[in-house]
């Protein structure tokens, strides 16, 4: 053995050495019915594929340009039925390599070691690792049972201790817990020294967004996250947005690289934002499919929980690990919630089209019959 092989590897920062990273079971999913990541199960607008096919080869060799993308998002939001309460400028919009990258950047920019990140539990699994890598403490307030109700009073009380960041997921993944926009605004107004981040990844399925009623001049400590991953079907290209007061957007932008979002993602995003009717039709189909599935589940007295979002929770009669494995063998992927507080033993089922839900329900009933 020489001296080199005996050397210990360099250690990372203590926070990173202790970190349990966020790992998602993403392998071997092709060709299966993917009801495990709340993705769009049909794919993006055909205009997205057309735009990518027409992407000029010479642009691959140059760094991406973001001209027009922020304007396109603002125009898209302005033309939504609920509209915007006040005019947004490009300085209100940050562009990220998915909302995951936005979450990482926000916490990196605002969270110092020893600060607290306040959130609810259970919630989206990436907030914790991002706080942990900064050395932040996490205060996760449980949802109220039964019904996984948003713990408004407990969050209000915790805000009195001025945590650095409050992370709200609305509707919450995985419980679907909904929070009316007025309550988000009230929380932000009550805690001006806390950065309140509202992750609106699934708002298209509830319509509870704060954007139609917010004036960032009055609530500069509120930041809204939006993505084209789940509804517009761009999960694989990675593009997300943060909307907020220009000073907050600027600070969050300071901790990202200048070209973190690639040119194909920009091209796809422009095409997707330009075809809102396609996304609206997909969302409407998911809501129809969710209604169909919930009706069937209730008829069969399945133990389930459904609120906002393109997903629901289902407690199988048999062990959730067995049912998950047997569904996979039948070509259908769902996500086990094993180990998550309050929902251990459940499966999270993403909602796709009615036809896909019929396939799922048929397979599920055959697998989870009475023991
Ligand atoms: C609540 C929530 N936020 C953020 C993300 C990540 O979104 P993106 O694909 O835009 O990074 C997800 C993905 O599952 C999510 O469920």
């Amino acid at each position: 053995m020489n001296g080199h092989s005996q050397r210990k590897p360099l250690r990372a920062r203590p926070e990173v050495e202790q970190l349990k990273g966020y790992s998602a079971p993403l392998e071997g999913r092709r060709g299966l019915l993917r009801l495990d990541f709340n993705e769009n199960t049909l794919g993006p607008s055909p205009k997205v594929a057309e735009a990518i096919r027409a992407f000029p080869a010479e642009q691959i060799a140059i760094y991406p340009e973001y001209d027009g993308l922020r304007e396109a998002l603002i125009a898209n939001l302005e033309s939504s039925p609920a509209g915007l309460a006040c005019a947004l400028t490009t300085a209100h919009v940050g562009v990220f390599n998915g909302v995951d990258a936005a979450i990482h950047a926000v916490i990196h920019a605002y969270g110092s070691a020893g600060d607290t990140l306040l959130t609810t539990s259970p919630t989206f699994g990436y907030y914790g690792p991002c706080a942990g890598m900064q050395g932040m403490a996490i205060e996760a307030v449980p949802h109220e049972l039964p019904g996984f109700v948003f713990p408004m009073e407990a969050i209000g009380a915790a805000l009195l201790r001025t945590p650095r960041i409050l992370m709200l997921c609305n509707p919450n993944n995985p419980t679907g817990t909904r929070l009316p926009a007025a309550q988000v605004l009230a929380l932000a107004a009550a805690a001006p020294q806390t950065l309140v981040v509202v992750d609106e990844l699934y708002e298209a399925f509830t319509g509870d967004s704060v954007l139609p009623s917010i004036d960032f001049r009055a609530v500069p400590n509120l930041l809204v996250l939006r993505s084209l991953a789940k509804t517009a079907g761009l999960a694989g290209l990675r593009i997300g947005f943060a909307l907020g007061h220009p000073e907050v957007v600027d600070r969050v932008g300071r901790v990202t690289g200048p070209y973190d979002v690639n040119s194909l993602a920009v091209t796809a995003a422009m095409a997707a934002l330009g075809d809102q009717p396609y996304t609206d039709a997909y969302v409407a189909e998911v809501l129809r499919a969710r209604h169909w599935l919930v009706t069937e589940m209730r008829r069969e007295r399945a133990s389930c929980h459904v609120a906002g979002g393109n997903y629901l929770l289902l407690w199988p009669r048999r062990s959730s690990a067995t049912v998950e494995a047997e569904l996979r063998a039948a070509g259908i992927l769902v996500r086990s919630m094993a180990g998550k507080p309050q929902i251990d033993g459940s499966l999270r089922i993403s909602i796709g089209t009615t036809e896909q839900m019929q396939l799922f329900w048929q397979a599920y009933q055959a697998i989870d019959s009475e023991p």
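DSSP finds 13 helices and 13 strands in the chain. The CA atoms of residues 47 and 271 lie 6 Å apart.
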